[in-house]
Amino acid sequence: MVHAQHPNRWIHRRSRLLLAAIATVGVVETTFLTIAKLTGGDICPTEGCDRVLNSPYATIFGLPLPLFGLLGYGLMAALSTAPLWIDPDFYKDLRQAVETRTWPFMFGLAAAMVTFSAYLMTIMVFEIHAFCIFCTASACFALTMFVITLVGHRWKDLGQQAMVGGIVALLTLLSLMAIYAPIQANPVAAPISGETGLAITTTSGPAEIALAKHLSDSGAKLYAAWWCQHCHEQKQLFGAEATALLPYLECDARGQNPQTEVCLAKSLRGFPTWEISGELYPGVQPLQRLADLSGYTGPTNFRNEDG
Known about the structure:
Elements: H1 10-39, H2 47-53, E1 59-60, E2 63-64, H3 65-81, H4 92-128, H5 133-151, H6 158-179, H7 181-184, H8 206-217, E3 221-224, H9 229-238, H10 240-243, E4 248-250, H11 260-265, E5 273-276, E6 279-282, H12 287-294
Parallel strand pairs: 3-4
Antiparallel strand pairs: 1-2, 3-5, 5-6
Helix pairs in contact: 1-3, 1-5, 3-4, 4-5, 4-6, 8-12
């Protein structure tokens, strides 16, 4: 058993205040991002940031990812300041007990948060291929808190702490892999042969992404062709990120993943044509009309529609 004996260094005296300060900054950042996601606000300074925050990875269990960061930072702020609110002159034993018992929880929380951040940074770089300053800042906060919980307390057994940190990191990683498995089972970046038509130049907002997911989950279908200008207009209304989530069926044999037989069986009059609840709706459809036809009840502040 390895015991660490250290003098009462400044980091031991100030570690809780440092953790509380970083956690408070994290609470402010994630509160700002959570409100922006829920209200559909456009707060990204760069296109890359917008792509990351509006990607499928930015939602967990139907809730915005920053909300979970807010809970983590809030809990860290509460744990780190808990004994500081207890008057040592009157409740010395209680303060010491809270001081001792909160450190393992802070270490475990910091280990989970830094693992979470490392996983998401990997997704940002290798899956989304974009840079988000908010995500990078949050990852730096999480890493700093983990280092402080490791060196800011006189742990009796560093080997045991390493084992605990490893277990927490492994459980966090396995949970994230399970949560994001549906997204990773359908990678967007996989190269597929066939024509794709004009590039989508608009960016999706939270409302467009939520509507696209709802249409896909509800069994709706979009019959289109890669060369069709009106189909491109329909995609432009959704934006690049949401278009990737649409229940899209390519009706031209030269396009990607063509399903010409399915399209022919529908006796379509033109492209694009939506099928919602068994009814066909030809032509470019406003997003609000698609929302009404499909029973969508999420946010409707669509950023790419006129008016």
